[in-house]
Structure formats: structure tokens, C-alpha cells
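Notebook entry, structure prediction.
Reason for the run: the old model in the group folder had no record of what sequence produced it. Starting over properly, with the input documented here first.
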Amino acid sequence: MIRLFSGSARFRVSMLVLFSAVFMLYGCPLPAAEYYVSDSAGDDQNSGTIEKPFKTLSTAAGKLQPGDTVFMREGTYRESVKIKVVATAENPVLITNYDNEKVAMKGSDTFTAADFSQVDMPGYDSENEYNKGKTKLKLLKKESFPVNPSMVFLNGKPLTQIGDDVVSVALDGNWTRNSTGSEIRHMRSNSFYYDKNDNSLYLRIAGNGKESDLIEIPTRQCVLDTSGSEYITIRGLEFMHSSALGNQYGGNLVAIRSHCLLEDCTVCWSAGGGVSLGGNNAGVINCELSFNGNVGVGANKAVDFLVKNCRVHHNNYRDYNPNWHTGGMKFIPDTNGTIEDCKVYENYGYGIWFDFNQSGRPIVVKNNAIMNNIGGIYLEVITNAVIENNFIAR
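New structure, fully documented this time:
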């Protein structure tokens, strides 16, 4: 017979406490935490409870452990968030809106006309060469603006970009997008221009803006990124506004990586791509992906992704070259997965485009309605593809 405890009563009590602590740590998992975030009522110095919520998702994300949940209260959150937790299938992490409240995450900052100085600049009447250089443009100017924003929104509507945010030729030799004008004197009503020489941003809007006008200017390239994480579900949120470098494959509004899921979300008005998929088993389910500057959904070397029951429409609104990297969905080398039960329509580009995948892993495109795009399904140098039961019309 072996006696587990011996000696004084004090020693026996100490050993019992030690064994109890070890059991709690290793034998019984700690309960999952719930965090709350409120843009209007929160403070990042709070504890994150429903009574004392954090102000930003970034703060809550920094505390996440497997099994935890973040509830976001109604509001607009202007931040760029990187999720860095490796959860498991048994203990996933959930980030969701609270009680169906409307939550918008934006990569833009807000301004009013008072944040700009008023200037007069020479312009010209494009219909009358005689007036060239004689017309005076009344503009709003903001000096030392930190990024070329690619997009500017006035009371929720995009202004026309004059010139471009990048060079017009991509690394593969293709031109990237059609530009409207090229100089400040080409500015028209409700337009913006970024002078790369002195980093000044110019706006031309009616009356040089009213005090009540809301000017939103994207300053962040990615609003939410799950790179390096696993088993994260993002649910019930709206994502809007990003700046992007248009001749690169980056600049996506949302990045979903291995075993992560975007569900019941809206992704719109990105300067570049809407959602980027990567890693293994990333998914986008029951989402609306629309009015993104380049492409609705994209992927690079993603394995076994799933896009299911999504509405993908009016993407490439910034007029990129439809034969370069645009449309509803564009998947570049060594990417495979399943697209099913989606509505893909009114995109300025191909509805679904797989570009060079000879890995042998299966590509499945089935039960989709693909309508009124420049092209339907485009398979470019592809092996092992199953295309079945799709409705395609132009």
C-alpha cells in the first residue's frame, strides 16, 4: 500500500490545494469568456463586460482565447483589426453583432469641409478649347494627406477620382484601369484628385461643401485580417471603405484565412478586392459582396475554400481592365475550392474566373445563377474542374 500523503496536517492541506489547482488547469478547461464592444459607450480601459464594454474591436481581439466570443454593439468602428488567436474546431472564436444590431466596420476617417482650406485653381472647359486655362476651379485642399485614398465618399456616395492612385501598367504588362483625366485642371463636379508631388488632396463639390456634409476618406487597406489565426467566425457585420494599390493583388477589405469563416456579412465599397481567401478551408457563406473597386471575392493559393449562398454583384465599379483581375470572383494560381448556390450578376468582368490551377485538387462550381457579367465562367489552364447545374446568361 502506498500512502499519498504523510507528515503534518499543514503539508497534507498544501498538497490537496496543489493537486486541485493542477486538475483545474489541465483536467478541466477554463470557461470561455464573453467580451462586449461599444463604439458609443465603451472605453478600452474597461473590463469588456456588457456593463463596461471596450470601445474598439482591436482591444477585445488582443484578449481572445479559444472558445471566446466578442459581441459588438450597434455603431461604426473605424479601425484595422488583426486577429491573432489559434482556436480549434471544438473551441472556435466567434465575433458577432449583438442581438442583430447594425455594426459597420470602416477603413475610412471622417472629415468636414472645415478640415480643408479653400483654394482657386485654373481649369478648363473640355467642350471649348478657347476657355482652356481660363476657368477657375473652386476647390477644397488638404495638405500632407498621409495616403493616396483611391476613394472619397460624400454623404455616402463616391466621388469621381481624377487621375489614378497607381501606375497604369501591372507587373504582368497589362494595363490596370481606365482613368478619368490626369491633372487637377480636369476636375469636374463631385470629384477628387491627389497630388503625389506634395501629398495634397483636392475635392471639388457643390458650394465647397456644407457644414452638414459628411466626408469619408479611406486611410486603411484592410479592415479585418485573420492571417495566422484558425477557427475564427465573423458573423453579422458590415465592412466598408478601404484604400488600395490598384496594380497589386493586395488591398482587400477583409482577409479570411485557414479554417476561418465569414458569415451573414456585407462587404462593399473597397477600392480593391472585397474578400481575400487563403490557407486551408476558408469560407464565405450567405454574404453580400458588392460595389468593390476590383473584385468581390479573390484568392491566392487557397486550398479547399467554400463560397456558398452569396450575392456577388456590381463589382469592379472602379473600371479596372476586365481581362486583368476583376469581376465577381477571381482565383489566381494553385487555388481550389467549391462555389455553390450563389447569385453572381452585373459585375464588370467575368462572373467566376479560375486562373492557372494544375494542382489536381478539385474545383467545383455548381448550382449558381451567373447573369449579366462580361463573361460567365472562365477556366484558364485548369485541371480537375466540375461545372454543373449552373444558369448562365448575358
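Summary: The chain has a mean pLDDT of 88.
The old model has been moved to the deprecated folder.
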